[in-house]
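Box S2. Input/output pair 1.
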Amino acid sequence: MQLSGNRSMQIKPLPDLVAYRKKITALEKEISKLKSAIAKSKQFNQKVELNQQLKAAEKELEWLFADGKGSN
């Protein structure tokens, strides 16, 4: 049974798949919160800082999907 959507993860133990999925879910929530905070923020400097955090989180999420390792 494949839970990850990534074929290379198919041979990993179930606890690793669960941890991988939790990491992805946490990053998706963080990205959503950052986008919301950017939209609500009125200070340019704060928007820049939040946007940097957003880009880093999106890059990490992209890395997880591309590499399928689930850890740094």
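Box S3. Input/output pair 2.
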Amino acid sequence: MWLSRQIPDAATCRAADRLHHLQVQGRWLFNSLTWLLLLPPSLWAFQPEFQLWQQAFTWVALRYGLLAHPWATLGVFFPFATTLSTLIWQSRNIIWGLPHRDLRQLEQQVNRIKAKGPSHLLWCWVWSDEEQS
């Protein structure tokens, strides 16, 4: 386990690994939802601009098209930005490992989930099988 060097307790280490895995999945789920929900309507708002750009594409036309539709521009760039930030975050964690601050927060979250018990939303994914074994 990749967290075993930083977290000495084996059960807490397994729970922290599961919680980190859930965080990674949550980030990718959020990214997928932004791609599915924001991008299509934003691109649809640019439909008249696409017709203009097909006739005569210039960088000025692109700039004015983006400035004329600020919400659509935000809807196009937000999925790219969140995906890029998730890729950078995950790459940093894979290459250099979790920073000590993130490890400490992860361990505190695991301890809070354990203290709250089965009433916590994430209990069944983080701690439930630890109680059975």
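Caption for Box S3: The chain has one domain: 10-132. The mean pLDDT is 89.
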